[in-house]
Amino acid sequence: MGPKKQRPFRAISSFQKRREAIIQARNKGSIPPDLHKALMNQVKQGLLSVMDVEVKSAVWKDGHISLRDKNEKVIQQTGTILLATGFNSAMPGKDWLTPVIRSHDLRCAECGYPIVSQSLQWGPGLYVTGASAELEMGPISRNISGARQAAERIVNSL
């Protein structure tokens, strides 16, 4: 995530090659070994359930949270704290953003992601961060370090 990794990414001029570099850099999340061991002990004891599923909605009713899939089928029901993480690697907000892109003639790469300036400006007065800035920011764009760097770029350009 440091400059040593970011410089080679920024030297890539092809948006297609940048997309490939972003995909290659994406790894599943990681946790420290001691925490992993503690979690796996909880799973073995039946005190914790670890699932790798896509939750589309959560409904709170009668003191329980029902996790549901895209068909509204209950995946899991729990009454305890729920922690979930992850994201889809597709362009977020594409459904509502597509007409905006067309009406404002905003540039996008073949993959559908915005082509922005170094200051993360996509159009007049329109700046982006997060996933929308990843062709400029690189693989760090979706994390806190990327958000901080994106904010610095935007503020420094104003």
Automatic annotation (TrEMBL):
Organism, by scientific name, is Peribacillus castrilensis
Note the superkingdom of the native organism.
Bacteria
InterPro entries for the chain: FAD/NAD-bd_sf
User: What name does the UniProt record give this protein?
Assistant: Uncharacterized protein
